[in-house]
Design a protein that fits this description.
mainly beta; Chitinase A, domain 3; Thrombin, subunit H; 2 domains; 4-stranded antiparallel β-sheet; 10% helix; cytoplasm; isomerase
Amino acid sequence: MNVEANKVVSFHYSVSDGGDVPVDSSRERGEPLTVLIGHGNIIPGLEKALHGHAVGDRFAVSVAPGEAYGERRADFFQRVPKKYFEDAEHLQPGMSTVLQTKEGGPRMVVVQKVGSSVIDVDLNHPLAGKTLAFDIEITDIRDATAEEISHRHAHGAGGHEHH
């Protein structure tokens, strides 16, 4: 069985942004990442690179910013009242944190400046503008269930879980 749309794929990965040290790795957590292919659950360049591979395949892929987290936008900053941050008292310039957006979803932001009542944040994803180098090992491929396809994401081994 090969990776294609509507397959649930589990894979270990490590990713770096041009440096020697990975910025993220599933191996450190001990569990592979499991995603439903064809529904936009991972960055487009990585999803395209997975297509056609089989269980046991190990490969490296480089993903350009346009197929990852986009180019950095110089004007993508916002001043946000501290009350919107769960951990405002601990934030320092350069730290990444998650901010709930008006659309209801979480957004990774980087703190630029901390004031007495507001925090200036960079809304660019921390990996925006970077070419990402992935090391991939596919550990499992299965057909997605009808429920997973209708929900547009993979469910855990115990069934349906939304967080």
